[in-house]
């Protein structure tokens, strides 16, 4: 899956305009590679969240910080098969 994401992410970010969004959520985002690529290629008004299992998002947070995107990208740990207690903001 990681290799597929590496190949896929360059095509997505070069062919789709993500600047129309304020916030992008990558469900099952692993270490955040795709979302990092998107945020690096969009204006600063675009923010993101990587959602994955708790032990995975710890690594994602490190990767996000390594790319200097901690101010625009956060992580949320959980299981997408279970209900979440996170509220959407306007």
Automatic annotation (TrEMBL):
State the Gene3D superfamilies in the record.
Vaccinia Virus protein VP39
The alphabetized UniProt keywords are: Methyltransferase, S-adenosyl-L-methionine, Transferase
- InterPro entries the record matches: COMT-like, COMT_C, SAM-dependent_MTases_sf
What domain of life does the native source organism fall in?
Answer: Eukaryota
Residue ranges of the O-methyltransferase C-terminal domain?
1-83
GO MF terms, alphabetically ordered: O-methyltransferase activity
Which PROSITE patterns has this protein been placed in? SAM_OMT_II
Q: Name one GO biological process term.
A: methylation
What protein am I looking at? Methyltransferase-like protein
Q: Which organism is it from?
A: Dinothrombium tinctorium
